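Researcher: I'd like a structural prediction for the single chain below. Treat it as a standalone chain; there are no partners to consider.
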Amino acid sequence: MELTEQLDFSHRGRKDIYEYVERHGLVDPDATREALGMEPREFGHHVAILRRDGVLAQTDDDQLQIAYDEAAEEEYEEAEIEFTIRQARQEDITGLVGVMRSVVEDGSYVVAESIADMIDHEEVLLRHNELESRMFFVASVEGEVVGWVHLNHPEIEKLSHTAELTVGVLTEYREYGIGSHLLQRGLEWANSHGYEKIYNSIPSSNEAAIEFLETHDWHEEARREDHYMMDGDYVDEVMMEITL
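Model: Treating it as a single chain, here is the predicted structure.
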């Protein structure tokens, strides 16, 4: 299912199943059926139709999850470091939250910090509902998540051409081009899904992040003076943007 597809269900039972799975990320079918109070035959039929239509997917251990288009994995090697960039999966959530918390622990990336708190609290990685859609790609080294790029799209018609992006890499894995590849992957995905403008808000004290984006053709669009209070000091919020 495309992340940008309009949600449309022809039966209330299918909508209820989808919304339950979307809220919980990865669910046991029997527990889901019981929670929704459905008969086995009815539940099985609705799940079959949702899987047929590419809305739900079933894992190898028979768990249900939201079905997203699986983008191809991309493998790279830079300075003897081999890494893979791919769409994030629900099972990446622990490693992803850990990476995000490590990157934002100095408080210099407020938006990313709030996103880490949100997915840690919800325990759901990818979302697609009437209010928002969010997508993650991760960079992994030897199977471990070391970086991410995240795009969040509000399901509001007037903002349908925009998305918010965050990106980050563990300190130990910077200088290998991982951040640049993640950023490129996120922008390519956004462009292919019809987004026209991507933005990223960063405290002005995070000069390295601002410089990184500027080297990739991002521009400062706006600045809110003294928007953050960090270590007792007022810090501007810098909104960076790129038009696709």
